[in-house]
Amino acid sequence: MGRFVITTRKNGEFQFNLKAGNGQIILTSEGYSSKSACQNGVESVKINSQDDAKFDRKVSSNGKHYFSLKASNGQIIGSSELYESEASRDKGIASVKHNAPSADIDIQTV
What we know:
By secondary structure, the chain is α+β, with helices and mostly antiparallel strands. It has two helices and seven strands, in the order βββαβββαβ.
């Protein structure tokens, strides 16, 4: 089962990572100014990850594949790592869809 891990960045912003059951990070959020805004981001991932149209599939300038997940307002909620192939990226998307809805939240901030 997946889990969201909320941490504080060095600049004081909050972020979350969605980790798959094996502990691999499958989605990393943008920075948030407050813990509550970050938690709202987590809830947004849980909802929006079930809509395939919210996943923006991209190719980076170095030819690697990645995706971003967008909220209903079009803002990016989180992005993936870089993948070597389109197939690997698509497996990452499938993992987010599978893990996000029931993932626990682990808050590791003070």
